[in-house]
Structures
1.
Amino acid sequence: MNRKRTRELIASVSLLALVLCTLFFPVVFGTRTLLSASRGSASITSQGAYQAKEVVWAYPRRSGDPGAVAWFPEPYYAFTHNQIVREHAPPLWNPYNGCGVPFLANMQSQVFNPIQTAAWLHPSPRAADMYILGRLLLAGTLTYCFLRLLTTFAPALLGAVAYMLTGYMVIFIGMPDISVCALIPGLFWRLECLYRRGAKFMDVALLSLFTTLVVVGGMPEVSFLALLFGSLYYTLRVWWHGGNTYGSVARRLAPLACAYTLGAALAAPQIIPFLEYLSESSNAHAVAGTSQPGLTAAPLINLVNYVAPLAFGPLGAPGLVAAPERIWLSGYFGASVLFLAMTGVWAAFRQGSHRPGNAAKLLAAFSAASAMFFMSMRFGIPPLEWAGSLPVFKMIVFWKYGEPFLGFFIATLAATGLASIGRRQSGGG
């Protein structure tokens, strides 16, 4: 990395951190906390650890699923600390749920996730807040690193902000799957580096590392989709830019297979207990009778939420039962980002965009097709919705876990859209 790129990276990280510090000023510099167990969901008291003089439910809610955050990942920080630091024992079993349940095997505990060390090493509201915001900063930084390979500084920074603050990352800010969502752009970054530099040992090793982190991040649905769409992007990249024969494509895919295999091997201590637990568990993703989570769709009226997330009221607003469309609010990106994304689509498909060698336009085309897929899965739009009945796919709740991918691909389209506007203004076509 040359000095200019290093300075740009430092500037981008600083600007992303400044954005987070501004938006979360009361948390970073004040005494507020992002913990759902503090208030917003029953924990120590019916309203959380903080008990007001009068029983007034927190409104609007800070999270789309405060109970899931307050009852699972937040207590896990203290439990993991006690097991590892105080008792010097591997956190394999949680005796405090019912008669006891597997802890390592549930994956959401993220025992092997090094990022979560910041939360459980010295568990406190401050440590948890820095961990939660740190994941957003990581998501923005990795998005910038990926997009900077394909475009200039300003569009890459815009895409980084757009994904870092995409609706799913904010609405479900404390959920365990954000640890995987933050790594999605990092996986694409390392795939792009692997393509550009060939089968160099360092690039294969770094891709295997990101593969491991994606797997141990604690959400198998998101991990599966990240590895799948990352593979599709890399394969299309190889085929589109010089893969004239099946042999040449196969040779370029060998490093990818090697990196994925090594990454899976490193994550085996997490994968094996999970697969055993999955076969013995009763879970909401099991397909029984006509129940197929992969085919569950949101109402089309929720398309409005992507540009106007408060169209049906804030999270937790009174009248939720009378207006069930609020239940499906799980993502947004805003009107300006959508406009730039549409500009990126136009730039990808205009005359001459099919020429081999233009990586940014290929990214825009791939992102547009991927966004269309996840939009179709979320709203049950034929004919793509049939994918929800395929093996593995039918176990994924697409209306929720497809949202971070939709936000990521819209952010990449917005970056390419801004880049195309910049080229036109500078006379570059």
Note: The first helix runs from residue 3 to 23.
2.
Amino acid sequence: MNKALAVMIVLVPIALGVIEIRLPSAIAFTESAPTQTSTITIDTAVQIFTNYLTRLGNPDLALHEVEEYQNNFYASYFEKSTGIFAFQMLIWKPGSIWTGGMMGNGMMTGIVMPEPGPNLMWNTKYGVMGGMMGIYHQTRVGNNMTISADQAKSIAQSYLDGVFPGKTAGDADTYYGYYNIDILNGNNPFGMLSVNGYTGQVWYHSWHGTYIQTIEVTPIPAPEFGQNSAILMLTLILPAILLLRRPT
């Protein structure tokens, strides 16, 4: 099935109210911008995405950053306890070509909604699973992808060499079931793509348009130094300390 058609099959019935999403800990439609015709700034978008997170009521989730593109504002959320990215959301700008025609004549402009593509179709914990039309529910608890982050970055670079020569793949952000990778033009952001963590399939995010700017809201925490790691470190260091303290 054509990717664009598959996304429309999922998104249009939800936007029309044919399918209702009810899962507080997963992605859903909630906060809306002041109006669907007024200009939305990135500061306004940050506040709307933050309000959305508050309404979810999940203390383990945090808003990482908000990126502004020609067509929309993009937000990424992550789990504090694992450091794994959870899901991606959008706010469509007024006048975007993606919000007209079959997408509803602008009816999706200004509301927080799930990003189409891998976020919906590949996300094994927070995405659309089960049936063509799909419903939101959490499925796999772990994230045992068979493709590593380094392999995903290599796959992304091979794709870029063929489709966008001269562009480079950034670091691979780990989501449940896939990796999200920034596309760089030199040191500057150009766009993004995703790599399926099981099949290696690449999905370019064609709906953003030209990159404009980024605001980081919450840094990704460094991995916690667990108790087992501390014991192992002491086991390795203590003999050396004792050896140095031995009288000569």
Note: Residues 12-26, 101-105, 130-139, 225-230 have pLDDT under 50 and may be disordered.
